[in-house]
Write a structure and sequence with these properties.
The protein has about 140 residues and is α+β, with helices and mostly antiparallel strands. It has one domain: Nucleoside Triphosphate Pyrophosphohydrolase (Alpha-Beta Complex), CATH 3.90.79. Helices cover about 25% and strands about 50% of the residues. It is globular and about 50 Å long.
């Protein structure tokens, strides 16, 4: 089984009446998720999270804190022969500072801003829903 180390972000913006989070819909799937990707050689997890956020959403931001790490396995069905992969993803909370969601890369079909509760509801993966719930608690504590 191959092992992959990745990093991702919960990119948020604060509007007058709510907190919104950016989700992506990859080209090969009809589901929403958080931006994430492999940590490249010589890159820190935080750097990878910021790079992946910009590549997959077209957005930039400042990392506020680490939210948590998730672990899961999946089968890389596009490989011949298909290979099982053990993946570890560290997620960071990132405050949006700029960019344009139309400038995402070729791997992504769409980027949408969701109210944080809508992001929790629409994210396709239970581990990411947990990360979003933790982000919501962190943001609620910061606003006090």
């Amino acid at each position: 089984m191959r092992r992959e180390i990745s990093a991702g972000c919960v990119i948020y913006r604060t509007d007058p009446d709510r907190i919104s989070v950016a989700l992506i819909r990859p080209k090969d799937r009809d589901s929403w998720s958080l931006p994430k990707g492999l940590v490249e050689p010589g890159e820190s997890s935080e750097q990878a999270a910021g790079r992946e956020a910009q590549e997959e959403t077209g957005l930039q931001g400042n990392i506020v804190c680490k939210i948590g790490t998730v672990k899961y396995t999946y089968t890389a069905k596009w490989e011949s022969p298909p290979e099982k992969v053990f993946k570890i993803v560290t997620f960071y909370l990132m405050q949006h500072t700029g960019g344009d969601t139309k400038l995402h890369d070729w791997e992504v079909a769409d980027v949408e801003w969701y109210p944080i509760d809508g992001a929790i509801l629409n994210d396709a993966y239970s581990t990411e829903k947990d990360i979003l719930r933790k982000a919501k608690v962190i943001l609620a504590n910061e606003s006090r």
